Amino acid sequence: MNSKIWSRITWILWVLLIIALPITTFPLVMKLTRSSSVAPASLLFLLPLVLIAVPGILRTKSPLPFHVKPVLLFFVYAIITIFLAFLRPIPDYKDQTLTGAAVEGAATLILGLLFYFVSVSLPNTPRKIHTTLRVVNWTGLVMVAWSILQMAVQPFLPEVFLYFERIQAFFSPNRILQDRMLGFAAEPSWLAHMLNLVFLAYWLAASFTGSSVHKWRFRKITFENILLVLGVIVVIGTLSRGGLLAFVLVIFLTFILLNLKLIKWIVNRFPGRKRVVLTTAVSLVLIIGYLGLLLAGLWGLSKVDPRMETVFEFSQGEPNALLEYAENLQFGERVVYWQTGWNIFSDHSLIGVGVGISGFYFPQYLPDAGWGLSEARRLLYRSAGLLNIKNLWSRLLAETGVIGFALFISFLVIFGITSVAMIRKGMGLRKTLGYMGIFFLVALIAEEFSVDSFALPYMWFSMGLVTAAWRWYTPAEGEVNG
Question: How far apart are CA 353 and CA 176, in angstroms?
Fold first, then answer.
């Protein structure tokens, strides 16, 4: 194939993959993969993209960032844990087979690796990185506009809303909700997940540094500033508690960075004892202010989200006060699933039970309190599928053991170090993408407490894009990357 034609087709598929990111569970992909939940529309473009792009990348022998090596090591090890599962006795679970679970686990791992590989290798010039971010922005605009219109049209234009539902049915198996923003996702929490890990991470970073990949500006307002405001409205509108926690953590980090600038200004402006007094006073006022904002946010959420009505009511004298509190906030099942993952890890701490295999161990390791929860009993007795831990951190420990967890965390540490290096030594968009990497990591900590799938593309897309910028974006003078 002609190299120009190959490049053009590859780039078109890459753009289409980005445009499809907001669709988490596409009915067509559900049919093709026979999956009832994780079926992102971007898979339609990922697989042909890999078939076309990978041979060309291998042929050109373009050196990839060294980040690829620890990622590849983790994935290879994770696949090995699946094979090792066949060497030990596995508890029976209804009609589920070890082979079926192993194939599904391996498939999710391979998809995650492919998402990362194309994200780190295709935007390999400054121009391509700029274009990628522009596509991200326009895609994000459509997503947040659609999310806001869903809520705005329902009460005032019911006839128009019927057309909205028809459009939504094409992109998602679930209907538009009346009280929570859904976008093109299957669940509000997944909408918040993609916002925090991809779109808000970049929009906040661009707003923080004052950069933009678009020429348009209205005075000092950039396109990314507008998108950030709209994105914040949508992430609040999802009422996803994990998503809101992730966003609050990122905002908290942003405030800390701004405070450090303020304190640095005070140190340079005022001498001696006055400097110490002012720095201490400003720090205390800001800490009290942040705590006040956090409490005010929780109080406001308790007034609009029925699940949070008891957020300030703590159980006393209960045998398991933490679980009782979680149950009152209607996420007791999640805590039980996390604890199940930890219990599995306790008995299989070195290499875990194998990716995708933990569901077989749920009846054996489910905490006693879990049997009293209606959702857990319903899934155990009435659902034919394997249960999920629903927490990536707990799942990593249970399914890959301390070795797999350490490999994954090592990669995140390397990613964080290079993101900080981009901030400290980079300029312009390079510095912006460094901040995006840091904001992404902070959001990831909270987000992965409620998501455990390797096949969702958002984590891999952001890490790949930031790593690509570290490797290929024009470095500052005297900077060397490899």
Answer: 38
